[in-house]
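Researcher: Let's walk through a ligand-bound prediction step by step. First, I give you the protein sequence. Second, the SMILES string for flavin mononucleotide. Third, you return the three-dimensional complex as structure tokens. Ready?
Model: Ready.
Researcher: Here are steps one and two:
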Amino acid sequence: MSFDFKKDPFENFLKSYKEAQLKGVPDANAMALATVNKENQPSVRIVFFKEFFEMNQNRGFCFYTNYHGRKAQDMQDNPKVSANFFWPHLDHQVRIEGYVEKLPREVSEKYFASRPRASQIGAWASEQSEEISSYDVLLDKITALEEKYKGQNVPCPPHWGGYALFPLEVEFWFGKSGRIHERYVYRKTAGGWDRFMRSP
Ligand SMILES: Cc1cc2nc3c(=O)[nH]c(=O)nc-3n(C[C@H](O)[C@H](O)[C@H](O)COP(=O)(O)O)c2cc1C
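Model: Step three, the predicted complex:
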């Protein structure tokens, strides 16, 4: 795979992402998202990248989640995050550092409306990251919610929505033989992107 440094990081990301999908990488949109809380404790988990979002002449990687969960609390206290995609079929990693902002309400609501009904019910049922006494308690809540919303659209919970991750640095890593890997880095500047390579 050849890398074109003349393209911006989003174009290069999309090229790689599409190739990963074509090559059959399962969940090619899965990204590890690392947050850091008030006590400087990092925490990482997978979320699904959904689309790009333009805000204030910036472009961000969107994902959706519960606004009350652990990661949301971390991001409220500290919007600096890091994310990582790894596509084994391509031996390719994309690493992102930046900050998050919540998506406008109407964007989250539109996306929520497109989700499968079971996921919509689940968003109401799950107090994400909170301790629960048993799995059955959750299933009972789901049954009650299915009854409540029978024959109606499920509205987007106020505590559910998206974030855009606006990158300040994006690194494209390509595995090469002999571990002489290629690393292409974009770093955001006032007017665009600095471009340079890093030693593997
Ligand atoms: C493949 C995969 C995709 C996931 N996608 C999401 C997602 O898009 N949004 C989300 O909130 N959690 C997603 N999860 C669950 C998270 O990894 C995590 O368990 C959950 O968000 C709670 O994290 P928190 O307690 O740190 O807030 C996904 C997990 C996996 C394995």
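Researcher: And what stands out?
Model: The mean pLDDT is 96. The chain has one domain: 9-114+159-198.
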